[in-house]
Amino acid sequence: MTQDANITADLFVTCIVDQLYPEVGVSVVKVLRRLDVAVGFPQEQTCCGQPVYNTGFNKEARKLAKRVLEQFRDSEYVVVPSGSCAATLRVFYLELFSDDPELLSEAKALAAKTFEFSEFLVKVLKVEDAAACGATHQGTAAYHPSCHQLRELGVKSEPKKLLFSVPGLEEKELEGAEVCCGFGGAFSVKFPHISEGMVADKIANVQASGAETLVSCDMSCLMNIGGALNRQGSDVKVRHLAQILDPDSQ
Known about the structure:
Layout: E1 8-11, H1 15-19, H2 22-34, E2 38-40, H3 50-54, H4 58-71, E3 78-80, H5 83-96, H6 101-112, E4 114-116, H7 117-124, E5 139-143, H8 147-151, H9 157-163, E6 169-171, H10 186-190, H11 192-209, E7 213-216, H12 219-231, E8 237-240, H13 241-245
Parallel strand pairs: 1-2, 1-3, 3-4, 5-6, 5-7, 7-8
Helix pairs in contact: 5-6, 11-12
């Protein structure tokens, strides 16, 4: 257990986890509870607005963002199992509301208490070893960092520190790990051939690593990479970091 017992954190679950990978959300909650965090879940939460903001629909993005500000106004901490959505709450809301002093103030308050999942474990809960979560995992794994996690949040060492302290897990180096997988949300729809080329390079490196499992902190990346691996008939599994840290998901 951590030294910071009785911390309260609300989960911003993200659309992809909620709609496509609910088991990841379950693992996030289980890991946090194992670390003595009281987990809340605002029932009326919706999309953070990232897809429409990225495509230039600021009016629609503001409407969704205002709802997020309302839903998480009273949260002590907000934990997000996605670098891209965490970056939206913490970085892009400040741009979105830059012309509205009142909403900008609310956005700054939300930004100050918003953390990506691995970042929250290391920086707030002071977890240095995955054994604190009860995690064990036999096999080999490589790690793929998402673009937003690296560039917008500056979360680099935290996920690997947790992942490769899991008892029984052997690290495999992934060539070009910090290169984008080609998903980028609307990017993969607008520029499918470029996206396909990027993910082809990524999965070639994943397969060359010899890892049995590819781990990331963003299910959007894993959905893209995992789909490409499946189309190649690969046996490489894709898992969110929370699933590796959750002993019940092994």
